[in-house]
Design brief:
Aminopeptidase, 29% helix, seven-stranded mixed β-sheet, alpha+beta, 170 residues
Length: 170
């Protein structure tokens, strides 16, 4: 079990948190290599996303240090509407660039795995760009295995890369 950082809390996201969530996601877009989105978003553009995923079945969670949102993660359906996949969820996570390298990713994944079990998911998926080696290493550390790869499918601003599929049976 990862040692919690002092004054760290993980809680369900509230609509008032959306500005910080969007800021963190926009950092990932601007930096490149962390998401396949190429254009940043406004808070208004992400409101429907927030309400779609911040449900009791899935959920959006924020990580705070001293009441400052430094990261978030969420669950989303895999192949939504297809009953055979109801016990599968995709987990996605993003960390403010100023807080990376402090163990927050470990805290996120431990909590996400615990919450996924509580929600009765049987499999967690993580879908990421294959150039995102830090996330891949973190996922492997927490028991995820590579289950698929589509090479050279994403055309980013300065490079082309593949999509990696990782899974963990709970």
């Amino acid at each position: 079990m990862t040692k919690k950082l002092p004054n760290t809390e993980i809680r369900t996201a509230q609509i008032d948190d959306l500005h910080e969530i969007v800021d963190i996601y926009n950092q990932a877009i601007t930096e490149g290599g962390f998401t396949a989105d190429l254009t940043t978003f406004t808070v208004n553009q992400k409101e429907s996303w927030f309400h779609s995923y911040n449900t009791s079945q899935y959920g959006i969670y924020v990580v705070t240090i001293n009441n400052i949102i430094v990261s978030y993660f969420y669950f989303s359906p895999w192949r939504s509407g297809r009953e055979a996949f109801q016990s599968v969820a995709e987990v996605s996570f993003y960390i403010n660039k100023n807080y990376r390298g402090r163990g927050i990713g470990n805290i996120i994944l431990e909590d996400a795995i615990s919450k996924a079990k509580e929600k009765k998911f049987e499999t967690l998926l993580a879908i990421l760009l294959d150039i995102n080696t830090r996330s891949k290493s973190l996922l492997v550390k927490h028991g995820f295995e590579t289950v698929g790869h589509i090479p050279n499918i994403a055309k980013l601003k300065n490079t082309q890369c593949g999509h990696l599929f990782m899974a963990k049976t709970l």
